[in-house]
Design brief:
The protein is mainly beta and 256 residues long. Helices cover 4% and strands 34% of the residues. An 8-stranded mixed sheet has the order 1-5-8-12-15-18-21-22. Strands 2-6-9-13-16-19 form a 6-stranded parallel sheet, with no helix packed on it.
Length: 256
């Protein structure tokens, strides 16, 4: 542990572009329960330490893409983070059992945990930073990841209010048994990509399962307790071939 907050075991930050994170195995990265350093965002609510972290990318300005692939991430404060990333590819990662560090029970200052503590995969293009104006997702690719058994959301995918994402693609992922924290933060998937609509997204062939949360999926303002409710919407083209049954793992740590 350490005094770190809003940090990563490995981090690319400050207007990065074409950053590649691959073939890493990372575990036991967390903010120390007795940490005396302040939380990054001020106050007493700390995010803790992500396994891998992209922060404030400029790929869309350089015509490049940053990629995070073939990583194994477990027993950290949180899993994978891509913050202020309008263009990113996240493939073939195994992310499990994050958010069960000593921080989870540390509910007194300066170690109180924020809503994003314990998430498996956190991708957002929100907020305003000097020299980094808000903009839309333009090319986000989320393929072939296994996100299982994390304390927070399996996926948190959020776009700046007032913008509509133009290129978010998701295929062949497993999101299962995440969102084990109490409500109101226990969506297996929280997805907010458009303004004023519960419309369709380019998502398909994912496995999404959670036996513990009644919220299950928030999709562009719509709350769904089952995948079938999304598939039954009039004109729906989202997750038409997705399934909501438990995957049978022989060896989660080995990706089998």
């Amino acid at each position: 542990g350490s005094n770190d907050d809003d940090a990563g075991a490995v981090k690319c930050g400050a207007d990065i572009y074409a950053c590649i994170m691959r073939y890493n195995t990372l575990w036991n990265n967390y903010r120390f329960v007795g940490a005396t350093g302040p939380c990054f965002s001020g106050g007493v609510n700390c995010t803790g330490v992500y396994c891998l972290y992209y922060d404030y990318a400029a790929d869309d300005l350089h015509g490049t893409t940053s990629y995070m692939y073939n990583n194994i991430c477990f027993d950290n404060d949180s899993g994978l983070q891509a913050n202020r990333m309008p263009t990113v590819g996240i493939f073939n990662n195994l992310v499990y059992h994050n958010g069960f560090t000593p921080n989870r029970a540390a509910l007194t200052p300066p170690n109180s945990t924020r809503a994003d503590y314990g998430r498996g995969l956190n991708i957002n293009e929100t907020g305003v930073e000097p020299g980094n104006p808000p903009r839309a997702f333009v090319n986000v690719q989320i393929y072939n990841n296994t996100i299982v058994g994390n304390w927070g959301n399996g996926l948190w995918l959020q776009q700046n209010a007032g913008f509509s994402a133009t290129g978010v693609h998701m295929r062949n992922n497993i999101f299962m048994n995440n969102a084990q924290k109490p409500s109101p933060y226990n969506y297996e998937l929280y997805i907010d990509l458009t303004t004023g609509t519960t419309g369709n997204q380019d998502f398909n062939n994912d496995l999404i399962y959670s036996p513990t949360t009644s919220l299950f999926i928030q999709l562009n303002g719509g709350l769904y307790s089952t995948l079938a409710q999304i598939q039954a919407r009039g004109g729906n083209t989202t997750w038409t071939n997705a399934v909501a049954t438990a995957a049978t793992f022989v060896n989660v740590a080995g990706g089998n």
